[in-house]
Design a protein that fits this description.
125 residues; alpha/beta; 5 strands; 28% strand
């Protein structure tokens, strides 16, 4: 059982993910699996994510993200525009994104606010 508050809302051109809770491996796995399931259900692979985690994943858990993405089936057909609303965890979130980008897994960017994230996301093909 996770201690995450996760809401996934379908919109016309994207899915909106709102997640709050603790940052750890189990919660990350649960969240990304839920996102993949929703993307498949709605046949929509553009994701606007907003997170507020009370604690970030550890460095070793950040390095586990490529494995998590592979395990849940995230491929290049997914586009993520992600917002970390907690200034204390933003650096770690950027690190996770960099690890994924260096492994060429998933496609996405990190933003400081949901408006610019959504604008960018809807411009992607």
């Amino acid at each position: 059982m996770t201690d995450l508050d996760l809401k996934i809302t379908p919109h016309e051109n994207y899915l909106h993910v709102d997640v709050r809770g603790m940052g750890n491996y189990e919660n990350a796995l649960f969240m990304w699996q839920s996102v993949v399931d929703a993307c498949e259900q709605y046949q929509c692979f553009k994701v606007l994510g907003e997170q507020y985690l009370f604690d970030s994943v550890s460095t070793s858990e950040a390095f586990d993200h490529p494995t998590i993405f592979k395990k849940v089936g995230i491929t290049k057909k997914y586009t993520f525009a992600w917002v970390d609303n907690n200034p204390r965890t933003r650096e770690t979130t950027q690190f996770v994104r960099d690890v994924l980008a260096n492994r060429s897994i998933g496609y996405g960017r990190l933003f400081n606010d949901a408006d610019s994230a959504k604008r960018w996301l809807l411009q992607q093909d």
